[in-house]
Amino acid sequence: MKPTSIEVARLAGVSRTTVSFVLNNVKKSGISDATRTKVLNAAAELGYEPNAAAQSLASGSSATIGLVLPDIQHLYVDAFLARVVASVSEESRAQNMKLLIESTDGEGSLNYRRLAKSGRVDGLIVVNPREGDYDELSEINRLFMPLVAFGSPSRSIATGYEFSTTGSNNFINAKLAVNHLIKLGHKKIAHIGFASSVFASVHSREKGWFSALEEAGLVQYAIKEFANLSADSGYQACQRLLQKKASFSAIFVGNDTVAFGVLKALFDHGLRVPENIAIVSYDDIPLARFAPVPLTTIRTFPEEHGQKSVAMLLEQLKGNVIATHHKIESQLVIRNSCGSGLKS
Amino acid sequence: MKPTSIEVARLAGVSRTTVSFVLNNVKKSGISDATRTKVLNAAAELGYEPNAAAQSLASGSSATIGLVLPDIQHLYVDAFLARVVASVSEESRAQNMKLLIESTDGEGSLNYRRLAKSGRVDGLIVVNPREGDYDELSEINRLFMPLVAFGSPSRSIATGYEFSTTGSNNFINAKLAVNHLIKLGHKKIAHIGFASSVFASVHSREKGWFSALEEAGLVQYAIKEFANLSADSGYQACQRLLQKKASFSAIFVGNDTVAFGVLKALFDHGLRVPENIAIVSYDDIPLARFAPVPLTTIRTFPEEHGQKSVAMLLEQLKGNVIATHHKIESQLVIRNSCGSGLKS
DNA sequence: CTGAAAGCGCTTACAG
DNA sequence: CTGAAAGCGCTTACAG
């Protein structure tokens, strides 16, 4: 039914070896132009397409990248993650690699080892790994295949983990955001994390917030709540915050999606942004500037991250085994929600 | 390095056949419990994981589903598509299938045939295929593998295409949305499509809008513009609309993301929603009710669609070859943007 | 209840 | 410049 390389060889009047050499463009094979043309014509005539499983089995490489997402629920609600998927997909395609999507289950665990051993993928990009996964990831990287942790701080290298990482510096950026609020005169600055702090990125942003308060001597005003990815959970987290006795004049919100919910909760409470409460958030998703109050936020570059992750993985696949950290610079985008200006 | 089934067989003191039977749970093999246990223990002890390529080559099935996305750019900006990816991923996982992501390139073309012939996937879910792709999809389905077109109207069956489809009825739903505006007394109802009308869903929504106008005898007021997926493109499309001489008191916007841009364009133009201009849009993305004016919109159920697509594909994979259309009901969610009520 | 052996469709030393 | 042949690691009739 589907033609195999043997049919192509027969039609072209050569051996399967030659067919393989021509189709895979093997340099050192010294195929004559005449032969090459014959093979190419035969393959085209038969509509030949190599069987991927056979190729993979024989060559030991699957030509596919595995993208591991945290709890897949993130994708339902968080625009940031979608952009990561899109850019990784795009770049993989550009590099002639296929893309396999995996996600961790409810408990956040994925059998990385099984995936690695199955030979289904040549390398792994793991998005926002949990702190508890670092040991296993390191072992996967050492034993089986290259691995890039997306959205991880470079500390993985500092602490002896061997795999590559890419990410913006959540800690520094969070400080940047909070310092902006401090500079505007705010003293009582609350924090709403965008998810559970088992996620490294959530945790780092919280630490950055706290560190900024410490340096300014404002920790006595520190109060915080955690949302759970959706705008709705942000709404609820903000309500919990409002019920506390401690007051605040500004909130550093863990991401933009959650900030949408926070804005609504504040409005529903009769509070105006930025007049009564100033907000700075994180991500600069495409809708951030279309929010009820255009959001002042930390702009990250997920597309660049995604592309870079793929590039780093391919580097390692080529045998360039140095684990590196690629840092993506971020920037504070000032819009209306912090009350410091009206640029949009 | 990685153990193979032969090592497992050796350790368990059986043949590879037996190992394969036990691990694949082959019913009719009549493996004794004692043997089964021995094999399982040996496999566990060695940390054995079957090689996927070998399995696929030998069995003729890859146990993976291919998910084909339209222009990958959609994912950058459209929350709807992300939910589709998430649900398909989730359901695939639940069904023990792997998920391969493919996307069409800039010109919107993908070599479906190559993908099908490579044997990399057992079946295909194609999201929002372009009208021009139907012939090829039909052929792929006939020649190579089951295929489900996601977001397609059932007309594919009516017109003789053989593959299965799933989707809400864009035409009917658009009419529903527009009729709601008509019922509220609007006569001059403009339309802003969310993308180019080469996409079947964009086209159907436009037709639904126009059909509603026809039935109400309002086509003389019909004006339209098309955005290009992002909120920003919605902003621009709305500006173009505002520059026309024709006036309007309501807009049916092709999706929520674009509606965010439309809202901003109207505000910047000094128009209030819903007082001056009423808006109904489409999708009910998670942020729709957190928009500057909570959006009245058609709620679709992408998660259900995604899950159903996978289920339909698996049915066909099991040999149940009937092409069917699964229709997902939608509903109009009334919020503030149409001015008819204040439910949220 | 279990095993020997063929076969899936490629790649890749190796030999010439 | 090209080909015969082994091998990748499984599954699956077939035989017993």
TrEMBL record, chains A, B:
Per UniProt, residues of the HTH lacI-type domain are 3-59
Query: Which molecular-function annotations from GO does this UniProt entry contain?
Result: DNA binding
Q: Tell me if Acyltransferase is a UniProt keyword of this record.
A: no
Checking InterPro entries in the record gives: HTH_LacI, LacI/GalR-like_sensor, Lambda_DNA-bd_dom_sf, Peripla_BP_I
Q: Name it.
A: LacI family DNA-binding transcriptional regulator
Coiled-coil regions listed: none
Which SUPFAM superfamilies does UniProt cross-reference here?
Answer: lambda repressor-like DNA-binding domains, Periplasmic binding protein-like I
Q: Which domain of life is it from?
A: Bacteria
Q: Which UniProt keywords apply?
A: DNA-binding, Transcription, Transcription regulation
Q: Does the keyword Transcription apply?
A: yes
